[in-house]
Amino acid sequence: VRYRRLMTGFAGFLARGPAPRTRLVNAARPIRDVAGRRAWKVYSRLLRDGEAIDDRSPSAEFHQLRLRAKKLRYLLESFVSIYPRGIEREVKALKKLQEVLGDFHDFSVQRQALRALAHELEKPELGELGAVDTQLAIGQLLDSLRDGQNATRASFALAFARFSSSQRRRSFRRDLRLE
């Protein structure tokens, strides 16, 4: 009952359209235009931030890019029904980029946790827990995680190059109907 009432009220709201004297700038514009321009703005910023990442970029920059990619994906998925089928290709490409960024972030978090554990094990009150063998094992794990993170950093370069290609940009712009 509540759901039907909500849907009926929402349908009426949509049918009425914006109030004639609204101060909301985009109220009378088609949602496709508003969402498309917003998605393009987020996409452009994602490209700009991604292009700034290089071999020396700290993990925090990857994490910020990951959050921006997530924001774009949610925006696109929220409005996928108003765009042509092609926008699903863009979402799929974005998911691939997010996967690499997520892997990089996971390596970073794991390395931080192991470092914290190594420092915790050095406390004298823990006695034998902080033994040399344990510290060596943590060191080996850290080396392995660093190698994995470095490999993922290299994967990012390829994934981002694919995601930001001129063909993909044109396709994205066309699918958002900004042309």
Describe this structure in words.
With 179 residues, this protein is an all-alpha fold. The chain contains 6 helices and no strands. The chain has helices spanning 2-16, 31-51, 59-78, 87-121, 132-163, 166-175. Helix 3 (59-78) packs antiparallel against helix 4 (87-121). The longest helix has 35 residues, at 87-121. It is elongated. The two termini are 43 Å apart. The mean pLDDT is 88.
> Main beta sheet, described?
none
Q: Portion of residues in helices?
A: over 70%
Based on Cα principal axes, name the global outline: elongated
Report the β-strand fraction as a percent range.
Answer: under 5%
Overall strand count: 0
Summarize the model shown.
This protein is an all-alpha fold and 179 residues long. Helix content is 74%, strand content 0%. The longest helix has 35 residues, at 87-121.
Task: Break the fold down into its secondary structure elements and pairings.
Blueprint: H1 2-16, H2 31-51, H3 59-78, H4 87-121, H5 132-163, H6 166-175
Helix pairs in contact: 2-3, 3-4, 4-5
